Amino acid sequence: MLDGLGAMLIPSYAEIAGDEIIDLAVRALKHGDKDTFLSLLTDSSRRLIEAMGNEFSLSSETGTSAADFADALKQGKSIFGNSGVIHYETIVEGESFNFYVGYDGNFGEWRLGGL
């Protein structure tokens, strides 16, 4: 959650939608549900992950586990946004990563992107 001016820039419905998409993605990752996870992504993020093929696995046997990825998403903090997109920042092993949740007008749904 943002404080002060930053909080005024993101309508509450957008922040709620962003939190819900992140929660759904976290649950899908933790349960190994790749299809649901992919359905929550923007087209560009989904294509990137699909192009990775077997390099992107929800198995904990492949190094960084889906649970670790889910935790990174869950720990993300909204840093700025507006009525159509919210940008988040998360810290993994001391390194900052950004992602966003945006409204896809073509589908009338909020999607996770920037992965």
What order do the helices and strands come in, and which of them pair?
Layout: H1 4-9, H2 12-30, H3 34-39, H4 43-52, H5 66-74, E1 77-81, E2 85-92, E3 95-104, E4 109-113
Antiparallel strand pairs: 1-2, 2-3, 3-4
Helix pairs in contact: 2-5
Structural description of this entry:
Helices cover 43% and strands 24% of the residues. It is an alpha+beta fold and 115 residues long. The protein has one domain: Nuclear Transport Factor 2, Chain: A (Roll), CATH 3.10.450. The protein has a 4-stranded antiparallel β-sheet. The longest helix has 19 residues, at 12-30. The model is unreliable at 1-8 (pLDDT under 50).
In whole angstroms, the N-to-C terminal distance is 21 Å
CATH topology: Nuclear Transport Factor 2, Chain: A
Sheet with the most strands?
4 strands, antiparallel
**SS-derived structural category:** alpha+beta
* CATH architectural category: Roll
Q: Uncertain spans, ≥5 residues at pLDDT below 50?
A: 1-8
Shape: globular
Tell me the strand percentage band: 15-25%
Kindly state the number of beta strands. Answer: 4
- Into which percent range does the helicity of residues fall? 40-55%
How many helix segments? 5
How are strands sequenced across the largest beta sheet? 1-2-3-4
The CATH first-level class comes to Alpha Beta
- Spell out the helices and strands N to C: HHHHHEEEE
Mean pLDDT rating:
79
Query: C-alpha Rg, in Å?
Result: 14 Å
Number of domains: 1
Oligomer: single chain
